[in-house]
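Changelog-adjacent note: as of this version, every example in the card shows the full chain rather than a window. The one below runs 204 residues end to end.
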Amino acid sequence: MAFGSLVVTWQLVSDTSADVAKSSMEKRMSTNPSDHIIPDKRLAAVCGLFCPACRVFIESTEDSVRLQIIAKLTKRSVEEIECHGCRSEKRGIFCNKYCKMTQCASQKGIDFCGECVEYPCSELKAFQARVPDRIELWESHQRIKDVGYETWYEEMMEHYSCPKCRAINSAYDLACRKCGASPSCCFVKEHWDVVSKLIGKAGP
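Full-length structure tokens:
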């Protein structure tokens, strides 16, 4: 299944299982920006993405029902799809099988692609251009370089938080998956046109 189609699938699951999701969200990990944020390097991806805002991560850590739906629609097992972050012990198939950056960084002894002398390499350029949630990849690497991943992590928590209820949303949650506020977060507000075009939704 093409990644673009998978994004649409995630949105359909989000739209049709909102009631189920609300109950499971009460069990979510403490990622409210009003709380004291403890940056977790396991969730700061080598490629520059922010794992807590990944739809697969959200479903893996909060909503087993939607994860099962995604597994069925993508013809993968729940075990294959489940992911707890880039540097965690449980990485999903998309990060574990298809990601080339993690192994490359490990071989070169670096933490993030932005530290590499070959940055940005052709592999990362192709990765960045593939889907909308990677639009800010270059800015993220520059920010990590300038202020460190800890400060960047805190900024990303705010960037993907619902302005109303403070829940963390993914780049493809046009409306907050918890309270329904639209747009769901700063990222979506700033990139509404390109994200909504992929998903096939009208404006807010």
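Structural remarks: The chain has twelve helices and no strands.
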